[in-house]
C-alpha cells in the first residue's frame, strides 16, 4: 500500500495534474472482501469529492491514517473479543498494581544475570563451539564492568526499550547478538523506530574527514539555501560533543520558543524565523537544546552517545519536510555508524538518503576525506558530491577573493574517485560575522546572510544538488 501511495505522489510530481485527473480518485476507499468489502469516506461526503493535484497529499495522508488507525482498531477489537471468549472475566483480579507495572513496563534493574537470561546468540561465523563460548565469556565480562546507567543505555540502543521484560510474559523486546566472521564488512545494527522520519522527502547528511573545515557552516548554508528556495527544511545537529548549530542561529536558550517539549509523537524541534501569523518552514534540533546550560560539556561513553543519536534521529516530531539536513561530527566513528544504520533501515533509504562531503584545499584535509569516501563506499552510502570550503578569503572592503591555501585539491580528489565536484566556497568575513552573532540576533539577519558572497556562490552549488534528484 505505502509503495503505491509513494509511486502515485512521485508520478503526479513528474506528470502533472492531468495524471491525477485521469485516475478518477475520490476521498473514499473500498476495503478487501476479507476486511468486510465496505466503502468508507475519508472525509465528509468523500465519495463525491474528487482527488486533484492540489489536494493529493491530503488524500494520501487520510488514506494512510485510515489504514493504520481505523482498520487496525477493528482488528484489535476482534482480538479483544477473542481473548475475553477464552479467558475468564476475573483472570486479572489476582494481579497487583506492581504486577501490572512490571508486565507493561518491564524492569530497569538490568544486571548481567538478567541479561544472560534474555539474550539469544545467532552464530553466523562458522567458528567452533569452543570459540563461540570464548566469545560469550568475553562479552559478558565486558558488560560486568558497565554501571547501571551504561547498561540501560546499551539496552535502549540494543532493543529500542530502556527496560527488559520482568518475566517471559513481558512486552519488551529481547536482545539478541549475531556473531559474524571477523573479516565481514557487515556493520552492527540496532533496533530502531523510524516514526519521526516518515514524512521527510529527502535527507542529506553532511560529512567531513576532519574537524575545522567549516562543515557546520556548509550545513547551515545548505539548509538556508533550501529554505530561501521555498522548501520546508529541518536542520539536525548530531555532533553531541560540539553542537555549534544553535549558536549560529542565535537561539536563546531561555526563550519559550526555544524550548523542546516531549510529546507522545516525539520531541518537538524549535522553529526558526517564525512569526505570530505564520508557521515556520525552518525547524532545528540539537543536543545543545536539551542541556540546562548550552556551555555544559558532554562526557559520555559510546553506548550512551549512540543511544542519544538514535533518539535524535528517530524521536523528533518533524512533521512534513522537503529536506532534512544532518550535521555530523568530523571523522568516521561509532556516531557515524549509528547514523548510517538508523537511516538505512528505512525501507526507501536508497531513494531519499544522500551525503555531501566537505573538505578544505590543504592536503591534510584531502587525505582525511579519502577515508570518508571509503567509509561511504563500504556502507553503500550515496554521495551527491564534494564541496571545497575555505577556498580563498573574500576581502570585506573590496570583495576580492585571495587564495590562502593551495588550489584544486578538492577538484582532483573528486576526479580521482569519480565524485561530482559541487564547487568552491571562500572564507567570507561578513558571513562569519553574522553566524558568530547568531542569525536571529542580527537585524534582518536572514536577508543580510543571503547577500554575502559565499551564499551567492552557494546558489550554484544548490542547483547541482537539486539536479541530482531530477
UniProtKB/TrEMBL annotation:
Q: Does the UniProt entry include the keyword DNA repair?
A: no
Q: Where is the HECT domain?
A: 1-198
Entry GO CC: cytosol
For molecular function, the Gene Ontology terms on record are:
4 iron, 4 sulfur cluster binding; ATP binding; ATP-dependent FeS chaperone activity; metal ion binding; ubiquitin-protein transferase activity
Q: Which GO terms describe its biological process?
A: iron-sulfur cluster assembly
SUPFAM superfamilies named in the record: Hect, E3 ligase catalytic domain, P-loop containing nucleoside triphosphate hydrolases
Q: Which UniProt keywords apply?
A: 4Fe-4S, ATP-binding, Iron, Iron-sulfur, Metal-binding, Nucleotide-binding, Ubl conjugation pathway
Q: What is this protein called?
A: HECT domain-containing protein
Q: Which organism is it from?
A: Adineta steineri
Amino acid at each position: 500500500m505505502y509503495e503505491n501511495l509513494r509511486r502515485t505522489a512521485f508520478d503526479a510530481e513528474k506528470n502533472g495534474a492531468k495524471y491525477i485527473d485521469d485516475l478518477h480518485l475520490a476521498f473514499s476507499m473500498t476495503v478487501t472482501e476479507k476486511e468486510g468489502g465496505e466503502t468508507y469516506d475519508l472525509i465528509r461526503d468523500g465519495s463525491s469529492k474528487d482527488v486533484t493535484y492540489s489536494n493529493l497529499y491530503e488524500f494520501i495522508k487520510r488514506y494512510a491514517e485510515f489504514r493504520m488507525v481505523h482498520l487496525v482498531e477493528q482488528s484489535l477489537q476482534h482480538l479483544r473479543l477473542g481473548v475475553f471468549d477464552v479467558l475468564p472475566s476475573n483472570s486479572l483480579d489476582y494481579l497487583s498494581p506492581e504486577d501490572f507495572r512490571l508486565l507493561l513496563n518491564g524492569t530497569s534493574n538490568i544486571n548481567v544475570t538478567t541479561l544472560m537470561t534474555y539474550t539469544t546468540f545467532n552464530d553466523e561465523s562458522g567458528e567452533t563451539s569452543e570459540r563461540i563460548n570464548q566469545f560469550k565469556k568475553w562479552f559478558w565480562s565486558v558488560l560486568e564492568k558497565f554501571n547501571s546507567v551504561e547498561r540501560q543505555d546499551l539496552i535502549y540502543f540494543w532493543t529500542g526499550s530502556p527496560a527488559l521484560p520482568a518475566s517471559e510474559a513481558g512486552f519488551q523486546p529481547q536482545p539478541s547478538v549475531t556473531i559474524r566472521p571477523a573479516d565481514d564488512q557487515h556493520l552492527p545494527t540496532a533496533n530502531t523506530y523510524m516514526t519521526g522520519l516518515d514524512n521527510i522527502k529527502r535527507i542529506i547528511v553532511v560529512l567531513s574527514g576532519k574537524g575545522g573545515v567549516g562543515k557546520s557552516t556548509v550545513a547551515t548554508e545548505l539548509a538556508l539555501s533550501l529554505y530561501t528556495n521555498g522548501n520546508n527544511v529541518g536542520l539536525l545537529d548530531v555532533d553531541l560533543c560540539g553542537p555549534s548549530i544553535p549558536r549560529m542561529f542565535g537561539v536563546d536558550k531561555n526563550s519559550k520558543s526555544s524550548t523542546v517539549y516531549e510529546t507522545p509523537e516525539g520531541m518537538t524541534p524549535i522553529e526558526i524565523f517564525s512569526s505570530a501569523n505564520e508557521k515556520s518552514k525552518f525547524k532545528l534540533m540539537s543536543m545543545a537544546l536539551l542541556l540546562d546550560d548550552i556551555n555544559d560539556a558532554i562526557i559520555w561513553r559510546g553506548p550512551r552517545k549512540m543511544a542519544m543519536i538514535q533518539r535524535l534521529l528517530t524521536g523528533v516530531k518533524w512533521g512534513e519536510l522537503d529536506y532534512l539536513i544532518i550535521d555530523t561530527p568530523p571523522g568516521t566513528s561509532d556516531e557515524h555508524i549509528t547514523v548510517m544504520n538508523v537511516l538505512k533501515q528505512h525501507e526507501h533509504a536508497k531513494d531519499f538518503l544522500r551525503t555531501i562531503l566537505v573538505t578544505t584545499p590543504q592536503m591534510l584535509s584531502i587525505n582525511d576525506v579519502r577515508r570518508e569516501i571509503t567509509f561511504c563506499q563500504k556502507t553503500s552510502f550515496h554521495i551527491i558530491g564534494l564541496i571545497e570550503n575555505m577556498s580563498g578569503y573574500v576581502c570585506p572592503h573590496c570583495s576580492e577573493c585571495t587564495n590562502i591555501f593551495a588550489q584544486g585539491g578538492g577538484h582532483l580528489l573528486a576526479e580521482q574517485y569519480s565524485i561530482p565536484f559541487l564547487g568552491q566556497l571562500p572564507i567570507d568575513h561578513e558571513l562569519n560575522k553574522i553566524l558568530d552573532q547568531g542569525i536571529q540576533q542580527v537585524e534582518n539577519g536572514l536577508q543580510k546572510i543571503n547577500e554575502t558572497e559565499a551564499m551567492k556562490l552557494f546558489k550554484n552549488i544548490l542547483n547541482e544538488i537539486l539536479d541530482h534528484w531530477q
